[in-house]
Amino acid sequence: MSATSTQDAARPPAGDSAALLSIRDVSKRFGKRAVLRGISLDVAAGEFLTILGESGSGKTTLLRLIAGFEQLDRGEIWMAGERLDPLPAFRRPVNTVFQSYALFPHLTVFENVAYGPRAKGVAKIEIPERVRQALDMVKMGEFAQSAPARRSGGQQQRIALARALVNRPRVLLLDEPLSALDANLRRQMQVELKSLQREVGITFIFVTHDQEEAMALSDRIALLRAGLLEQVAGPREIYGQPATAYAAQFIGQTNVLVAEVCDGIAHAGAVVWRTFGPSGKCNFSLRPECIRLVAPGTPVDAADVSTARFRGNILNQTFGGAMDLLEIDCGNSQRLRARIPAPGPVSGERQFEFNASDTVRVRAGSED
Amino acid sequence: MYSRAYKAAVAIPPALWVSVFLLVPYAILLCYSFWSVSSQQVIVHNWNLQNYLQLVRNPIYLTVLFRSMRIAGAVTLLALVLGYPLAYYLSFHAAGRKDLLYQLVIIPLWASYLVRGYAWKTILGSDGVLNGFLQYLHITQHPVESLLYSPFAVVLTLTHIYTPFTFLPIFASLEHVPRNLVEASHDLGASPWATFRRVILPLSLPGVLAGATFAFVLTLGDFLAPLLVGGPSGIMISNIVVSLFGAAYNWPLGAAISLCMLLLVVGLLFSTERLERKLTLS
Predict the structure, then answer these.
(1) pLDDT at residue number B281
(2) Which of A178, A233, A185 is nearest to A49 (CA)?
(3) pLDDT in tens, A47-71
(4) A12, A184, A231, B189: least CB-packed within 10 angstroms?
(5) A90: nearest CB among B186, B199, B202
(6) Number of neighbours of residue B85 by Cβ within 10 angstroms
(7) Lowest mean pLDDT across A341-345, B185-189, B232-236
(8) Closest alpha carbon within chain A to B183
């Protein structure tokens, strides 16, 4: 339950105007399965927040609760001082971009985008201009009169975006909107999405299972695991200071070192380094790129206590362009992965080093 | 993919079926419609247009044809009014009871047409269930004779029989309405009623069209219900065809009427199919 306690500390008092959207202790079950188990999360106005998690973590359910497609079992959702959760979906000031776009097949692109303003009773004369602006914003203006089914996946994605944004929602919900696109188009859309969000200044809540996408786009990432929040932080912080072993492993690659700390020295098998904090058994995360290959014959600087050295047998080398990935056996069945600036082929037993300050103490996780 | 011999082999059975049971009989029917019956009640092969002219000249045929179309129209309308809400409820709101309710709609189809016709006879007759009930409640003093043997009885019976046929295609088309479109509509601020009118109804129109075609075409060609519950005022065009091929022994005239009916139905199917294609494309 440690993740909840971080949330408690971060949660502003009720009625704080800093949070546009406030999710408070929300739980949801489907039959016997608890999908969300007491989630609390605040989203600031204009923020790009990503809800990141594996399939089955409850991320889509959380989004659907905000949109109003599901009813919560416990907790509250507030927006700008107004209770959101008792309202039906069609009265909520949020809009959704669906994973499969969900464009109306019997309407033209123009009519799809005009659907929201028409439903909300926007004056008839204003609608064409607003629709045109929205379509221009996503560069789809020239296809206004065509059928959505005739447009490509990426174009349908843009139309879906225009259809949501034309309503000027307080919060835009995006449910894995890019997962159906191929890799190149996906990267291009990521860039466009981010600049679009800056342009319109609307709060985006973006659901994805892709950690790279989450890091590229987000102001903050809420990492969800089995219905609990594992960590909520900016991409740099969550990468540099992962709170749990799960967070460290899910976001980027890492080595989890199970160490015994005794008087400021951590022992993980043959790997030993200086550390601070209490003694006892503890997990550390050490990113592969923090491990360096020591050139043969480099003398040991006894005064330098902040650098830890260890010997290891290189099991495997994977070429990766600028950086190669090495798999190192350090004895005691401990294996580490290191990402090293392309060294050319290396093999056999070599010496490695890392800065003790690059090791991050991580909790086992909110689950365990 | 497939060899030419294989393709020819699989094409033969349906081709045989269609020619033996459809094309040849219709060709024979077409021939008959241009022949005539002599005064000695013998069919003579003198080619003429008398049968078709008689159809237009004798008002009885057109009167019955228009009555048949009115009855078919009424049955279609009633079957839609009953079938659509039923299909909508089952598809969108029945949740766990969906399968059970679906079976309950289908089960009447397993009962013989005749049984259902006779059932209405016992319900609507002058000493039938309905009249007994009305008198028991003292709503009427004497049996209402006009319930049975009237166009009303025909419409009622055929509506009962053909509503499941209308329900099925509507239900199928409603089941195919992607649920995320309904969510998208709500998400964009449309109320449940607006969502129904602007998303669900338009997307289910092909099913409505198919269901309406079923009810109309099947009713138009029906002769058993008028025979059982229709009486003289409930006679339909098929009853005339039956009697022309039977007691009246005027096969040529019967053939002419049948072919006109066939043209009517084919024209109807053709135009609904075009309409449906237009609906699904836009």
Answers:
(1) 59
(2) A233
(3) 999 999 999 899 999 999 999 999 9
(4) A184
(5) B186
(6) 12
(7) A341-345
(8) A69
Verdict on whether the full-model pTM lies above 0.90: no
Measured between CB atoms, does A156 come within 8 Å of chain B?
A: no
> Which residue type does A12 have?
P
How many alpha carbons fall within 13 Å on the CB side of residue A201? 1
One-letter amino acid of A201? G
pLDDT score, position B111: 87
Which CATH number, 3.30.300.30, 3.40.640.10, 3.40.50.300, 3.40.50.11740, labels domain A2-245?
Answer: 3.40.50.300
Query: Which homologous superfamily is A253-362 in?
Result: Nucleic acid-binding proteins (2.40.50.140)
- End-to-end alpha carbon distance in chain A: 9
Tell me the C-alpha distance between A178 and A180, whole Å: 6
Nearest residue, CB atoms, B189 vs list A67, A105, A167 = A167
SS3 B274: helix
Write out the residue limits of the CATH 2.40.50.140 domain(s) in chain A: 253-362
Domain total of chain B: 1
Read off the pLDDT of residues B34-66 as tens digits, 9 standing for 90 and up.
998 888 888 888 888 889 999 889 999 999 999
Q: pLDDT higher for B84 or A16?
A: B84
Give the mean model confidence (pLDDT) for residues A71-98.
94
Which residue is listed with tokens 């776009």?
A101
3-state secondary structure of A321: coil
CA torsion angle for A234, A239, A244, A248 (degrees, to 10)? 140
